[in-house]
Amino acid sequence: NAGVTQTPKFRILKIGQSMTLQCTQDMNHNYMYWYRQDPGMGLKLIYYSVGAGITDKGEVPNGYNVSRSTTEDFPLRLELAAPSQTSVYFCASRLRGGENEQFFGPGTRLTVL
Amino acid sequence: KQEVTQIPAALSVPEGENLVLNCSFTDSAIYNLQWFRQDPGKGLTSLLLIQSSQREQTSGRLNASLDKSSGRSTLYIAASQPGDSATYLCAVAPVGDYKLSFGAGTTVTVRA
Predict the structure, then answer these.
(1) Mean pLDDT of chain B
(2) Could you report the per-residue pLDDT of B59-104, keeping only the tens digit for each?
């Protein structure tokens, strides 16, 4: 299994541009999550999904959108990028059930100039 | 709302010393507690998962304990090495919630 994969690894955007961060997991996990981590700070949850077709907001959803059309994929869309969205973005997944382990992708480092 | 706290925020020890990292949480209604390691500029790697019914888990030089009633977990790393330098995060899976609650992490430096 490849686990949780994210693309791209790095990206520089100009203010106002849009982009989609890709996340795929091959573990047949039901739950998927998007976090952001600012330098020297903890993780903040952006959006999460408990299954295909179901998404919900986390702590910091403004400026982002998600979709979950398949179990495997959970893309994060940034519309009208702003410097405040400069961060490292992590995708994670977990099998349904509270007792299961959460796995993280390697992250996407995004800079908005 | 579940609050997870990790103290201290940073720790520096000489090589060979045992590391003790603390994690506390406010609500004992949890499924499990997970310890992660994060190297600078990298993602989070799962180290240990302790189910709520367990008291401890061990993996090599790592040992994690869980006292659910007091809302505490401790990660012990024996005979620390410079390669153990990283940030260690704990997270709990609250009952009735799909999302983990994370601590802010403890940044460890092991001096050679």
Answers:
(1) 95
(2) 999 999 999 999 999 999 999 999 999 999 999 999 988 899 999 9
- Residue located via tokens 């090495």: B81
CB B84 within 8 A of CB B27: no
For B106, name the nearest residue in chain A, comparing CA atoms only: A42
Integer CA distances (angstroms), B107 to A47, A60, A93, in order: 26, 24, 24
Dihedral over Cα of A82, A54, A106, A40: its sign: positive
* Residue A68: other Cβ atoms inside 10 A: 19
Q: What are phi and psi of A12, to 5 degrees?
A: -115, 130
Closest of A61, A49, A58, A56 to residue A25, by C-alpha: A49
Chosen from A47, A99, A111 to mutate, greatest number of chain B CBs within 10 A = A99
In A, which residues are within 8 Å of B49 by CB distance?
101
Residues of B in contact with A97 (CB under 8 A): 31
